[in-house]
Amino acid sequence: xxxxxxxxxxxxxxxxxxxxxxxxxxxxxxxxxxxxxxxxxxxxxxxxxxxxxxxxxxxxxxxxxxxxxxxxxxxxxxxxxxxxxxxxxxxxxxxxxxxxxxxxxxxxxxxxxxxxxxxxxxxxxxxxxxxxxxxxxxxxxxxxxxxxxxxxxxxxxxxxxxxxxxxxxxxxxxxxxxxxxxxxxxxxxxxxxxxxxxxxxxxxxxxxxxxxxxxxxxxxxxxxxxxxxxxxxxxxxxxxxxxxxxxxxxxxxxxxxxxxxxxxxxxxxxxxxxxxxxxxxxxxxxxxxxxxxxxxxxxxxxxxxxxxxxxxxxxxxxxxxxxxxxxxxxxxxxxxxxxxxxxxxxxxxxxxxxxxxxxxxxxxxxxxxxxxxxxxxxxxxxxxxxxxxxxxxxxxxxxxxxxxxxxxxxxxxxxxxxxxxxxxxxxxxxxxxxxxxxxxxxxxxxxxxxxxxx
Length: 454
Description:
Blueprint: H1 7-40, E1 54-60, E2 64-85, E3 90-95, E4 104-105, E5 110-114, H2 117-175, H3 180-234, E6 236-238, E7 243-248, E8 255-256, E9 261-278, H4 279-285, E10 305-310, E11 319-330, E12 335-343, H5 344-347, E13 361-378, E14 387-392, E15 395-400, E16 402-407, E17 410-415, E18 422-424, E19 437-441
Parallel strand pairs: 1-19
Antiparallel strand pairs: 1-18, 2-9, 2-13, 3-5, 3-8, 4-7, 5-6, 7-9, 9-12, 10-11, 10-13, 11-12, 13-17, 14-15, 16-17
Helix pairs in contact: 2-3
């Protein structure tokens, strides 16, 4: 049997087809409207933008002769300092009433005193010993002179006794006049006179030796006497010069021994600053006196006037010193140490101002040679690879330069620039070569904002 057809199924298919047709018509209508709108849109008009110039400050450079200044840092020190210790042992019985660090003591003032009684006794003993030996020498000299005179008499007596003996012996031998006992007595008298003369002659010959020995003993006694006298003087320790006390380590009643530093003094009338300088700066710019080299060491620097400024000074004070000598060369740091000296007159600006004193850390500027034909530009205008930017026909141009010296914020150029070049002093970062510029003098730098350019 055949089943009857479903009328609902036909109706559903008809509705689906109608929906598909409606969707297609809607899409076609949308696309048509989109193309119509696109046809109505006009392209924008092209705008031609002119190149905008970069505002920069410039400086026109001229060659000039520039005195070079070598600068370095150093600490002020007193040139003459001394540590004072006791030269004899003993108990301190007196001290200076102003024996305190920072006090200024005059030359010759007694700093402290040591009990002198033991050394005074040794001095008295030395004086007595020297006087005793002086008496011995004097007595020997007098006795020597007396014995020399006596020797002459004894030699004369000996000669007379010999003559008498010869006469008596001759009479009895030739003429049988006299007796043998008389001859014997004459011979005995002659022998006695000879013996006395010989003994005294021997004593006289020994007198120079005895006097020399006594004189040597007297010299030794005098030396001990001088030592005792010096020891007594050393019991009073005096200031060797007028200076400032930097160390006081002695008190009354203290027992002191030689060699221990008890007092230290500094002479502030002559100061010195040892300044460390770059060796290549010294080699190239320092002025040395002609013919002043000694062996393989540096020559004598010219004694130029140096400007000195305390690094902590806010009042603008500065002092003037004089270059004195080359002190040392340090291979590790490649620096040269030079000494600059100042006298008391150079360090004091008068009442009410701060003097230059020991311990201050200072900047020292030393005049050097003159750099001829150099161009002076701000240091910021020179790049790390030694190039500068020029304004040439209002266009940026990069040139390589030779930097002779950099001094603070200033660079001195000796190669790569020409007279009248316009150096750009505005700090630029990676600018494009041949960029259009609007050059302005440095006085208008405030109107230019620094920034990166591409």
